[in-house]
Amino acid sequence: MPRFTLSTFVALAIASSKVYAQDSSSTSSSLIPLASKHFDYNNLPYQADPDNGVRGTQFGYNRCNSTTENQSSLCQTAIINSIDDFCLWGPPTGPTTIADTEQEEVAWCTKPGHGTRLIPAGALKGVQFMTTPDYVQVVGFIDQTFIDLEASDYGGELDPHGADFRGNPLGGLVYSTAWSNGSGNYEQVIEWHNFMGGSVFCFKICDPAGPNAANYCQHIYDRIGCAYNAPNNAQNGTFETCQGANQDFPGIYTDSAGNIQTYTQPPESLGAISSIPYTPKVPASSNCVTYTSSLLYASLPTSSVVPSSTGKISSSIHTSSTKTGSTGPSNTGTSSNANGSSGSPTTIALSSLTSLVGVALAVFILS
């Protein structure tokens, strides 16, 4: 696939009819911020945010179990554990867009047992699960029509903050066993962000005990998407787990003179973002192991949705490798499973006939 420059993205961008950027001007001081609420996983409230604020009340619920586990579930407690056990935020009904449903998204998961909806079989086209010293992230390619998103929606950001600090979705909670030292105990993740749309996704959760959780899981760069918030070398058609180095904090970069700079996202009122002064560095990854998707997600239900694309699923491979970061949409890496891939969320490259416009919008992913 050809490499597209930022100017190409800008020239092709189409303005969204409804977007929500992070703006503290409408903050309500009467409500407790979602990121300040802490709940034991085994004693969750029915709703983490029962208040009636400017945006109304919480749409779903957080106390999820076998009685709520179905394809109509309104569970708003997401889990991020492993390549075969993670959730994404998606609309409760559709087809629709993230912009129209960001405050009411529900959890769509890859494994039963969490009281949620399940991502239908065939929706996931490639997944990379990365473990680093300070965060865990899952990045991938998806036929988003399977989870009630319009095929043409180029998305937005979900996080536990938002303009009124109540989170998007309202009351949405995230838990993980990533830092349980093998005990299997679920720990609440306070800082996280999930970008959805443009047939790609990235969901990063930051170590609650880490000193830089809020920096690695920044929520103020909601207009520049996965490429800048979760740089990666994931491949369409490949399902893998890797160990990786920490990325630079989103928005922090070193200029050509060697000086550390901070990028400030312009307010939406100034119009489309026409340029960004840096290219994010993709952290090196190692010890990558690839899997067969049908074995990873054997418990997923079939769907009546007709797939909008036919991404090639990787064959059964089990290999270890070391990779160095690449920002190209056709990363070849050094491992055998990376060669000849059709794209990477590093630059949010798509492979459909509408990919030119899709890439433009996905790079400037809006919420």
Automatic annotation (TrEMBL):
The entry's keywords: Signal
Positions of the UniProt region annotated as Disordered: 303-344
Signal peptide feature range: 1-21
Name by which UniProt lists this protein: Macrofage activating glycoprotein
Species whose genome carries this gene: Thelephora terrestris
Record lineage: Eukaryota, Fungi, Dikarya, Basidiomycota, Agaricomycotina
